[in-house]
Amino acid sequence: GPRSAELLERQQRRESNARTYPRNIPIAIAEGSGSFVRDVDGNVFIDFLTGAGVLSLGHNHPELVRVVTSQLGRLTHALDFPTPAKDAFVEAQLSMLAPGLRERMRVHFCGPTGANAVEAAIKLCKTATGRGDIVSFQGGYHGCSHAAMAASGLVSQKRPIANGVPGVHFYPYSYCARCPLGLRPDTCETNCAGLLEKSLLDPNGGVARPAAVILELVQGEGGVIPATRDFVRRVRALTRSLDIPLIVDEVQTGCGRTGTWFAFEQYDIEPDVIVASKALSGIGTPVALIMYDERLDVWQPGAHTGTFRGNQLAFAAGAEAVRILHRDQILANVRERGAQVAERLGELRAHPVVREVRGRGLMWGVELADPGDGRSAGQLARQVQSRALRRGLIVELGGRDDCVIRILPPLNVTAEVIDTACGIVIDAIEESYR
Ligand code: PMP
């Protein structure tokens, strides 16, 4: 519409941020409510981007609005001092961990974005182990600050940067749809994990014992790729046997997104460090933290500080979000709506241009293949995204060449909205491939 066009044009002239989401989703957003946003011209869209997975209870959940508003008149910023809002938030966060893990975990607020928490996790493990190398996985994403970017396996962002953070070693991830080793899932014997084992166990080669291994259990930006169970369990067993801290980056998968509070629960493993951010407050008031095993509790006073660590508005919202999660049985909804997505989008599996449909909970991706008509899979995905937008649905792309259509609905989304949105995705793919 004309008002969107005007704001987009003004943004384009002044902000390089215009080169991200607004380039392919050209709308200016006026307001949001639940699973929907309205643009400045009055058009309404289903929002399955939800601020990159931040708005887990949708836009402007009324109860979150109420607690944030009430906190706003009481206390907004208190550095690292204890406050009732912070105490309630930490209590709520720890209550979501299994007993045992809960007792062992310490919390460190970093802030305010996911990348800040990744930096903290890496730095803590380096401090605790006295070692410097990091093991990460191909296709992973951990953020745009220096060390987080260095640990990311998506390479296009860091290629132009001179003198990046050294000492990060990449290993293949269990991306079975396009196996990095060219193997087949039924006969591969999880050789991706095998390669890492070989390298870390080989005394005369491979990587010197690293300070940490950092892992996404479902690669999000990498294209919604759930790690296989065998892969994760072997990485955990190996790191445990060599006393290497395992960092799980749950920035995107955390806070219920995959159907459990954290994705690692579904693999029956316990990490040494958990990184969380995006949906912690449920309403987009920024907050990021790490939870780490008490054995790693080595930081001296002042070792890792920062001004914006722990936003009181986020604390108030986050504690309330956990209360709502229990009361409204949000995790059950994630699993039920996830099963609905699996069934609806599963129809696409036979489609000639669809390579794979995969996901966990309410984190789903449709990976497209090259259509064989001169367009790349990534170009096709871009067209699907535009067509979906025209039909009233906001989706994001991801994956190695942006060939995966990604959806991240609010966790309290209704069956009806899921049905409509899946229909739009299917129609947009049909329409783009004819
Ligand atoms: N880790 C993961 C898994 C992410 O998905 C993201 C953000 N997409 C980050 C880290 C970085 O978070 P932020 O953008 O808040 O710095």
TrEMBL record:
The keyword rRNA processing does not apply. Keywords: Aminotransferase, Pyridoxal phosphate, Transferase. Its EC number is 2.6.1.76. InterPro entries: Aminotrans_3 (IPR005814), Aminotrans_3_PPA_site (IPR049704), Dat (IPR004637), PyrdxlP-dep_Trfase (IPR015424), PyrdxlP-dep_Trfase_major (IPR015421), PyrdxlP-dep_Trfase_small (IPR015422). It holds the Pfam family Aminotran_3. It is an enzyme of class 2 (transferase). SUPFAM superfamilies: PLP-dependent transferases (SSF53383). Pathway: Amine and polyamine biosynthesis; ectoine biosynthesis; L-ectoine from L-aspartate 4-semialdehyde: step 1/3. GO terms for molecular function: transaminase activity. Its cofactor is pyridoxal 5'-phosphate. The keyword Manganese does not apply. Belongs to the class-III pyridoxal-phosphate-dependent aminotransferase family. This is Diaminobutyrate--2-oxoglutarate transaminase. It comes from Catellatospora aurea. The lineage of its organism: Bacteria, Bacillati, Actinomycetota, Actinomycetes, Micromonosporales.
